Amino acid sequence: MLLSLIICTSPGIVAAQSLDAKIDSLILTLFNDKDGPGGVFMVAQNGKAIYQKAVGKANLESDVNLTPENVFQLGSMTKQFTAIAILMLEEQGKLNVKDPISKYITDYPAGNKITIHHLLTHTSGIKDFTSMKSLSTIAQKDMSPEMMVGFFKNEPADFAPGEKFEYNNSGYVLLGYIIELVSGETYKDFIQKYIFDKVGMSQSYYCSDKQVIPKRAYGYHKKAYGYVNKTMISFSVPFSSGSLMSTTGDMLKWQNALNQHQLLNAEETKKAFTRYKLNNGEEFTYGYGWHLREIKGIPDREHGGSIFGFKTMAIYIPGEDIYVIGMSNCDCNSPTKITGDIAALVLDELWKRKR
Fold first, then answer.
1. Which CATH superfamily is domain 31-354 in?
2. High-pLDDT (> 90) share of the chain, %
3. How many CB atoms within 10 Å of residue 326?
4. Measured on CA atoms in the order 155, 156, 157, 159, is the torsion positive or negative?
5. Is the sign of the CA dihedral 261, 117, 318, 70 positive or negative?
6. E strand or H helix at 79, and its extent?
7. Against a cut of 0.85, is the pTM above it?
8. In this entry, which stretches build a coiled coil (predicted)?
């Protein structure tokens, strides 16, 4: 009986072990310094993790190893949460993505021509504050959302609204400010109450270097002479464009919540994952908070993040319900390519099993 059980189950076990070994090999091509900062990766299918890996250190000074439960800064993956928060407010009838931003920020230059949709899709033409030379003058200051908007709002536009797609952090700062104006709550509290708490993301936070955060992964830069602690910034500067932190497990809860319409109905959810068009009718590959691309000819939804000391990447393939996420606690190592390679590898394995 035991023998027949072994014979029946061993091919699947071998296949799983083979896939794990292949993923391990991909990760270790870049994340190969067990005594330095490293990365955490997860693969999930049908809403459940099927692979998890942590390599390197969560804290170099304390010599603590990374684990899949460590909390990382997300960087621009924050934009997913900001976009969904806007759609939640639209579903409640409190705003419309077609609204001009002048409806909420009355003194914004040319605000009657720039819509919330333009902000969501990076087609507003507003100057990206991260490209401004004067950014260093505020990087460590506590800035209110109004102050942040004031920092860039009088800069000349790069192009007319809807003319071009150009990735833009300023637009997502404006969206966070609009969330506060419309909801009457801080962005931090809104995300905590209506997303993190509702979904059960108990290890997700608005970034803080002061708060005691259990299982925090510390961020690093790499210099010619070795690793150094990340540059300190005020998280009120990236704000709703890049100031959230989470774990791979919580991010899977987030993905599952979107799939199960825990936060938005199907109609509103679809808006986040629709490819839109420029004024000239040309389609571009960005929805609301996600890049909409393809892996091996299969549509996916993806976004990365980069902030001092951290880089992140997540890919979701809706047709196969596959979610792959990678997080690094050194901005010297980007998980972007590896995450894509893992997703392609998992697709290949899935297709082999279906044959």
1. DD-peptidase/beta-lactamase superfamily (3.40.710.10)
2. 93
3. 30
4. negative
5. negative
6. helix 78-91
7. yes
8. none
